[in-house]
Amino acid sequence: MFNKLKSSGFLRKNIFVILLFFCVSSVSYSQSGWVKTKLGNRPLAGVHFLNNNTGFILSYDSLFKTTNGGSNWISKNTGTGTAVLTSFKVFDEYNIIIMGQCCYPDWANGLIIRTSDGGNTWINKTFYPNHTLINAATMEWLNVNTGISVWVEFDSSNYYGRIFRTTNSGTNWSEINYGIGLGYFISIKYQNADSIYGLTNISLYKSTNQGSNWFSASNLGTGYRTKYSCPSFDTMFIGGNKIYRSVNKGLDFTETFSIDTPYVARDLEFVNAKTGFAIGSSTQYNVIKGGYIIKTTDAGINWVRQTSNTNIYTSDVFFLNENTGWVVGDSGLVLKTTTGGTTFINNLGTETPSKYSLSQNYPNPFNPSTNVKFDIVRSGDVKVVVYDVMGREVQTLVKESLKPGTYDVTFDGSMLNSGVYFYKLITDGFTETKKMLLIK
Q1: Which of 55, 81, 117, 155 pairs with 131 at a CA distance of 20 to 30 A?
Q2: For residue 136, which of 223, 280, 6, 238 has the smallest C-alpha distance?
Q3: Are 351 and 405 spatial neighbours (Cβ–Cβ below 8 Å)?
Q4: What residue ranges of the chain are covered by domains with CATH 2.60.40.2550?
């Protein structure tokens, strides 16, 4: 039964659509500003930070909390045993709600748990199927009291959407007959207390009475889609393998961009009306292809493909501001940036050096950032890569074609543990490695 859940995609956000609110016309590439670390080996489903220090990460079986920006994580016991946790909502340091599936060996029931004391105690609510099994799809919250949860039921041949509403933080849920046949909402979003948008594979629906009734706001046709959000009241974006844009509250959509094959946009995060990020992974569960990150700074007119240094499936992205953000995914993958995902290379001089060289980083020891200077004699491809003591790649600082000159790049170790790290300059015919020390 669990294999059916996995192939259906609901345990991995593999329900293909994103109502992304941005527009794309071109993509370029940048060197990586993302630092890669691990949090266990289990798939990570969500990430949310309240400030630079305090944040939460949800894995399939645990909730983790940090109070030092991700340098260390503490596991919070949810008491859910063999349940699979798929999404969460963090209101503040104390109030958190988690959605998932329960329990081994058939995962036939839905589960929502909530805490009001930071994870010390939890209240559980089980959702039972009318058919063979019920599967978590998505949830959305207007505030800590009012929310909607969407579920998909399966029998031997069909699936059925079900939707529930709560006004007391999930203590009680009332089912809503939302009348879209065999369809189901892949993503749902409050516009205000009364108006709610819900997205299916073929249509955008809207409710103006808190979800009691729904009508089709736009027919989207067939396609891969995952979820939606809105940086402005009028503008909407739908994404998946393509991105569509509406500037009239979803009445009409125009295709603006095609995601690079074989990726599909899984999640997006807008910091403000102009700056947003989208992450993507392969459309096929058994194909290891992930780490796709794109960024816009002009409300989606142009997008920059960022280097993530990973091909692991990525599931969720969150940004505190234009510079500081996180991405999580399978195998305990955690990516963090404090530069908006980009490493900036400073050209200190265009005079051709007499020889290739890699200087000692400065300062050294350092906390949390340090500068690396290097000389390039001939035009060509250049890489500067940081490794840990086990030889694992931590971050690619430079990966592009450079002209002769002297360059300087900054390495940020704010998410890494204290210790020895190595950085390596790689060019055509020349390599050099040096050691640096991070002390916190």
Answers
A1: 81
A2: 6
A3: yes
A4: 345-438
Question: Which of 220-234, 342-356, 362-376 reaches the highest mean pLDDT?
Answer: 362-376
Is domain 345-438 annotated with CATH 3.40.190.10?
no
* pLDDT of 28: 34
Instruction: Report how far apart, in Å, the C-alpha atoms of 119 and of each of 78, 163, 173, 394 are.
Output: 7, 26, 21, 31
Secondary structure (DSSP) of 280-347: EEESSTTS----EEEEESSTTSSEEEEP-S--S-EEEEEESSSS-EEEEEGGGEEEEESSTTBPPEEE
Question: For the chain, what percent of residues have pLDDT higher than 70?
Answer: 87
| CB burial of residue 92 (10 Å; 0-12, 13-18, 19+) | exposed
Record the tokens describing residue 422, joined without a space. Answer: 């190595």
Higher pLDDT, 288 or 397: 397
Check residue 286 and give its pLDDT. Answer: 62
Cα 254 from Cα 235, distance rounded (Å): 12
Residue 393: both structure tokens together = 């790649």
What is 2-337's CATH number?
A: 2.130.10.10
Considering the entire predicted model, what is its pTM? 0.79
Task: Give CA separation, 29 vs 167, 193, 266, 276, in Å.
Answer: 45, 40, 20, 16
Closest among 392, 376, 367 to 431, alpha carbons compared = 376
